[in-house]
Amino acid sequence: MVTPQSEDFSKWYNEIVYRADLAAQSPVRGCIIIKPYGYEIWEAVKNWLDRRFKETGHQNAYFPLFIPESYLKREAEHVEGFSPELAVVTIAGGKELEEPLVVRPTSETIIGEAFSQWIQSYRDLPLLINQWANVVRWELRTRPFLRTTEFLWQEGHTAHTTEADAEAETMQMLDIYADFAWNQAAMPVIKGRKSENEKFAGALRTYTIEGMMGDKKALQSATSHNLGQNFAKAFNIKYLSRENVEEYCWTTSWGMSTRIVGGIVMTHGDDKGLRLPPRVAPIQVVAVPIYKTETEISAVTEALQRIVKELRGAGIRVHIDDRDETPGFKYNDWEMRGVPVRLEMGPKDLEKNSVVLARRDVPGKEGKQFVSQDGIVQAVKDLLDTIHHHMLQQAQDFTQSNIQDVHSHDEFKQVIEAGYWARGWWAGSNEQERGIKEETGATIRCFPLDQPGGNAPCFLTGQTADRIALFAKAY
RNA sequence: CGGGGCGUAGCGCAGCCCGGUAGCGCGCAUCGUUCGGGUCGAUGAGGUCAUGGGUUCGAAUCCCGUCGCCCCGACCA
Predict the structure, then answer these.
(1) How many domains does chain A have?
(2) In terms of Cα–Cα distance, which of A70, A192, A86 is closest to A467?
(3) ipTM given for this complex
């Protein structure tokens, strides 16, 4: 049995990560071993995103893990933002290095340097590059997947001729992330813009998708930055325009990381374990044969093999659990590991030409149904789809019912104190935003892109505000 | 960096106060049994007790130091 979410969410999360076999602790502080089952979820993320990146004209490349320390310093805000969490190599090959190398915390700088050489003319633009990589940030507090010292991600880096083009790229990638979250991971994230305090170090504007986890804390699930000309100026990324004038590029960067695996766990998991959204689940259907005698074993196995072959032929990811354990043990085991559909087949099914399909998202008898073996492929496909939508709907209901509108400072404090997200008109300063954080622990998660429009008084200052902000405690 | 906890079998822990040469549960292996919601039994394998030093005839246990990891905060994807 796992610690119930209601008792200690954090403890629940840790237990799930290890017991569902997603990851293991490593000998290195803050670093985890991503085990095959967890890595397969990441591969699902990766494969989907990679396809979308390529469809939208991006190409993959790979840049060095090490970055000359001086590069980081070329963009003032950037170095200030990242220097506290850098790992720096000062000795290599038994000798002290002339210039220390930082292990990349992100690659704007070294890619910016490359871009400055690659780009000469407006004909070279837009330049659309992505890299799949590991990065290192020496965070003070780590948690499996959500914040590890080393993590995997993709970082897109692009250069454009105009601010409008850069902004369009930034939004396009944000939309792809949101598409992934909603339609693959069944996470109803909210798209929005970061406040000045929360934006990426060195960016002009940062956009984010924010998701509500099972404990109502917010998780920044991906970000997309319009870097303006900040990095172009710092790294001399210039092009010659059609009019033969030298101009600075407008650049963007955007990323999603292995953090999303933690987000999936915390969005969907329950007290029986993990619940994986079907489209990212490494195993979509686990087949459990049921039998008593030798004759039954061969009969059931044979029929099951046939069904599984059919399902696999249709592109469904099926695993047969033929371990020498009792069915009950297997049910619990696969529920812990979050497999969306369990297919049971036993002697009774052979007689009736049926199988049992059990849904992970609907507990107990209610989620079980007998289905004819004829048309099993379509039935399973439909069921996986139904499960996806049901999980999305559940998460959406949960998110919506835990966001409260606030109109005054007192109301705000109560709402945050009670663990909800607060939504309210905001015209406060950066200072006042920091004050709120100090006072309640909540930060502006974003200014949602979806705004009501018009004006209303700021809940804190009473001044006329032209936009609403979402506040929450965050991971 | 502040606060707390923990290092003993693959995992989770007991033993330590009151020194005498290591034990329980799970897991693992083999055999049998069971099998539509965590079967049951038998046998067996597996440990430099984190590490350095000290006290002692004798240290997992007492004393001093070191290292590491985890959890809670501040920093952050």
Answers:
(1) 3
(2) A192
(3) 0.91
